[in-house]
Write a structure and sequence with these properties.
mainly alpha
Length: about 230
């Protein structure tokens, strides 16, 4: 759990720095920075999608994953948690950059990427935290930018990072034998599709319930056994 713990701390520290910087950044600059980051998020997603080799696996994973997510109401659960945080810590619920928005957006961005999954698996199977340490640095920088434009909600995403990556790390010894390079490539591809969706949401182009698609990231583990 060392890598996951460091990652969570990096998000908290980065968010703290971002909140201090936020006080001196006019809203119009924050908006421009947010859109620039959203474009970079989309680029990261497109780059990751190219790692997939079987388009059919991605299609089935997304379709079935969406069904599972809708049945479990994952997006509603995450947003509900964000709203509860907002009600407790927000002094102004009409803020454009709400706590809920920052929490949900940052949690998804920090969790659905390939480094979160592969790094946690590597940490759990081999005790190698190098990938998560690298991710920690990236998340540290990202959390500064996000919190500077979206507020304190980004800091709370550290909890989501710790729980999500921690669970994968603990379960790694059980799923490790099924994780070939092909499986990891398809998981990366599917997760990257969600990153693109998140970027589009950040730009205001779509209002996709990205959390409901999270199960799709793990379905390639099963589908690659038959396809």
């Amino acid at each position: 759990m060392t890598g996951t713990l460091v990652n969570a701390i990096a998000v908290i520290v980065g968010s703290t720095i971002g909140l201090l910087l936020k006080k001196g950044i006019p809203q119009r600059f924050s908006d421009s920075i947010m859109k620039a980051v959203a474009l970079c998020v989309i680029y990261i997603g497109i780059d990751g999608c190219l790692k997939g080799e079987n388009t059919l696996i991605a299609i089935i994973s997304m379709a079935v994953g969406a069904l599972i997510g809708e049945l479990l109401k994952l997006d509603d659960g995450l947003n509900s948690l964000g709203k509860k945080l907002e009600s407790k810590f927000s002094k102004n619920n009409n803020e454009e950059s709400s706590i809920a928005k920052g929490f949900v957006t940052a949690s998804l961005l920090f969790c659905v990427g390939a480094m979160a999954i592969v790094g946690s698996l590597e940490s759990g199977i081999n005790g190698n935290h190098e990938i998560l340490f690298s991710k920690s640095l990236l998340d540290f920088i990202s959390s500064i930018i996000f919190s500077a434009s979206m507020g304190i909600g980004v800091m709370f995403s550290a909890v989501a990072v710790f729980v999500y990556q921690g669970v994968i790390t603990i379960l790694a010894q059980f799923v490790g034998p099924y994780l070939s390079e092909a499986v990891i490539a398809e998981m990366t591809c599917t997760g990257s599709i969600l990153i693109i969706a998140l970027g589009l949401n950040m730009l205001g182009v779509t209002k996709l319930k990205v959390m409901n698609y999270i199960p799709a990231v793990f379905l390639p583990i099963l589908l690659c056994l038959f396809m």
